[in-house]
Each structure stands twice: as structure tokens, then as C-alpha cells.
Design goal:
Blueprint (H helix, E strand, L loop, with lengths): L2 H14 L4 H16 L10 H9 L10 E4 L4 E5 L5 H19 L1 E9 L5 H10 L3 E6 L20 E5 L7 E5 L6 H10 L8 E2 L9 H6 L1 E2 L5 H16 L22 E8 L8 H13 L15 H10 L8 H12 L1
Parallel strand pairs: 2-3
Antiparallel strand pairs: 1-2, 3-9, 4-5, 4-9, 5-6, 7-8
Helix pairs in contact: 1-2, 4-5
Length: 335
């Protein structure tokens, strides 16, 4: 389906679910961006879930969002259980706005939901000349190191910065070997997941996505990954006033109440300490690209380059929608 047609369709669906025109566009843009950068696990595969949660009244389609200015640099946002894209969109906008005034923007968001790709928000700051750190917590998927029960989410970490090139530097990674969205999408499409990314409920390795969802995911780098997940839970949960410590509700299976996810955005000017940041970052990238390459590697890419290339290529093509996801979209469109 063409990007323009798909956006109109998604906006129409969200309007049918009582979102405002502005909020519907914010949600559609985020979902389509995920498809264009090659992250379908955070794209159309999640549309049905967002709408289902609105239908079950655990997402608020008409939120009364409260924005509290703590200082010229610091802002707190209560998203009133809006779709996560809405709270995050406001969060990164206010962080950028604050950074333009004082050099740094620090924004906490609570009572939000799943906001898609962290890199989507970090990249927006980097494209405007700022460095950004983005954190958000998620439902239990990973057991803390030494425990046998899931508690931490896949809690992504995002760092974005201007590169001096067309593609900004954007590192967006979950602390699990693969993100949970890929496992969800594999289960939806009847596909297997890679070996070594998850265990079933009995602690045995599995390539069955449904067994993985009932079991637990493996963190990157063992106890280090578990520690990073804990760090993100503190930053985006404890500090913001959102749910934390395993209290974030699963968006697909738990309709007992809102998720109350937290986001934390830190945005700052890269020239706070040096006047020649762009020259220095370009020098840094060039040094690394000139390193001897292992066999089979033509070019050393910095994080964000591949994504920018995928976005450019995919923007010129129709977006492929798997049959069962298209069926969900058509069902939502019928109301």
C-alpha cells in the first residue's frame, strides 16, 4: 500500500476510535515510520493492540494532559493514559524546546503507554542539532540476574546525536537479545524466532515465539544486560512517577487497567563544552571508518546509517502488509 494511502487509513481508524485529528496523525506517523525504517515489529502489527486497549477503556482517547513547568530546563508531563505516541511526542518536543532556551531539556512523562521506537524520538532531536537520551520501561519479559521470574521489561536505551552527515548517529537498542515486538510479530505470522534469545516457562531454550512469550527473554551480556534494564526501570519508572518494578501491564493480555509507562527524555546542545562539535564528530567517524575491515565487510557503518538508507529506499516503495495484519486493519476500518 502507498504510504500516503496507508497514513490516511490509519488516521481514519484512530478517528473512529475517538482520537482527535492531531493525535491520530501523531500515531499514524509513528507507526508508518517504524515500517519505513525496517522495524515492522513496532509498526502495523501493533495497531490492533492500541485500538483494542482503547475499546476496553484502558487507553484514554480523549486525554486531559497536564504539563508542569518545573524550571526553564525541566518539565513534567502527565499523559492521562493517552496512546504512548502522544505522551512521547509531547515529551521530546518540550525537551527540545527547553534545550533551545537553556542548553538542556529534561522531561519526565508518566501515565503513558507503549511509544514505539525510541530512535524515532531521539532522531528528531538530532535532526535539529541536539544530542538526546531516551528511556522507557516496559512489561515484564526478563528475569533480574539471579531470579527465575520475569520482572524487567526489554527497556530500550536510545542515544542520538548530529553526525555532520545526512544520517544522524542513532543507537536504539533493547537490553534483550531481540526486542519483544519481534517475538510478538513472529507469533502473529506463525514464524520461528532465532535460537538463543528466549527460554520457555520451564527454562528450556525455545524457537517457538508463543512459548517464549509464556517464558522469558534473555538479556544482552548476562548480568550486565539485567543491570541496564534495572537502570532504565529506575530512570523511566521510579523517577517519573510511573509504574516500575514489574508493575507495567502487558498491552496485549492485561486489560485490568492502564499501563502507566514512564518515559524520560534528556536533550542538550552538543557545543556546550566545545565550539567545534561537528568537526570533532566527523573526525571521530572518519577514524573509525578507516579502520581495517574483517573479511566480508565493505564499510564500517555508524548506528543510524543503515536505518536512514532503509527509510530512503522504503519511502519510494509500497509498504508490504502481511495478510493477517491487513485483515486486522480492514476489521478496524469497518468499526
Amino acid at each position: 500500500m502507498r504510504v500516503k494511502d496507508l497514513k490516511n487509513l490509519i488516521v481514519k481508524i484512530f478517528l473512529n476510535f475517538k482520537l482527535s485529528k492531531e493525535h491520530s496523525i501523531v500515531c499514524a506517523d509513528a507507526l508508518i515510520n517504524a515500517e519505513l525504517v525496517g522495524a515492522p515489529s513496532h509498526g502495523l502489527a501493533r495497531l490492533f493492540s492500541y485500538c483494542n486497549r482503547i475499546k476496553k477503556k484502558v487507553i484514554n482517547p480523549k486525554p486531559k494532559i497536564k504539563i508542569k513547568k518545573i524550571s526553564q530546563s525541566i518539565t513534567s508531563i502527565d499523559a492521562d493514559n493517552a496512546v504512548g505516541f502522544i505522551g512521547a511526542d509531547l515529551g521530546i518536543k518540550h525537551a527540545i524546546k527547553n534545550a533551545k532556551k537553556t542548553g538542556i531539556g529534561f522531561v519526565a512523562v508518566k501515565n503513558s503507554g507503549h511509544y514505539g521506537l525510541s530512535g524515532y524520538y531521539g532522531e528528531r532531536a538530532a535532526q535539529q542539532g541536539f544530542v538526546a537520551l531516551c528511556f522507557t520501561n516496559a512489561p515484564p519479559a526478563i528475569a533480574p540476574h539471579g531470579a527465575k521470574k520475569t520482572l524487567f521489561g526489554t527497556n530500550p536505551i536510545c542515544f542520538a546525536a548530529p553526525s555532520g552527515n545526512k544520517a544522524p548517529f542513532v543507537l536504539d537498542t533493547s537490553i534483550s537479545v531481540i526486542n519483544r515486538g519481534k517475538i510478538r510479530r513472529a507469533a502473529k505470522l506463525g514464524e520461528k524466532i532465532p535460537q538463543g534469545v528466549a527460554l520457555d516457562k520451564n527454562g528450556n531454550p525455545t524457537t517457538n515465539p508463543r512459548k517464549a512469550l509464556d517464558g522469558l527473554q534473555l538479556p544482552i551480556a548476562g548480568f550486565r544486560g539485567s543491570g541496564l534494564a534495572w537502570m532504565v526501570d529506575i530512570l523511566s519508572g521510579v523517577i517519573t512517577g510511573a509504574n516500575h518494578g514489574g508493575k507495567v501491564k502487558d498491552p496485549f493480555d492485561d486489560f485490568t487497567g492502564p499501563q502507566n509507562i514512564g518515559h524520560l527524555f534528556i536533550v542538550f546542545k552538543p557545543n556546550l563544552f566545545v565550539n567545534n562539535y561537528i568537526k570533532r564528530i566527523q573526525e571521530n567517524i572518519k577514524r573509525i571508518k578507516k579502520l581495517p575491515k574483517i573479511k566480508g565487510v565493505k564499510e564500517i557503518l555508524y548506528p543510524g546509517e543503515n536505518k536512514a538508507l532503509r527509510f530512503k529506499i522504503n519511502s519510494k516503495k509500497k509498504i508490504f502488509i502481511p495478510k493477517n495484519i491487513l485483515a486486522e486493519i480492514n476489521e478496524l476500518n469497518k468499526g
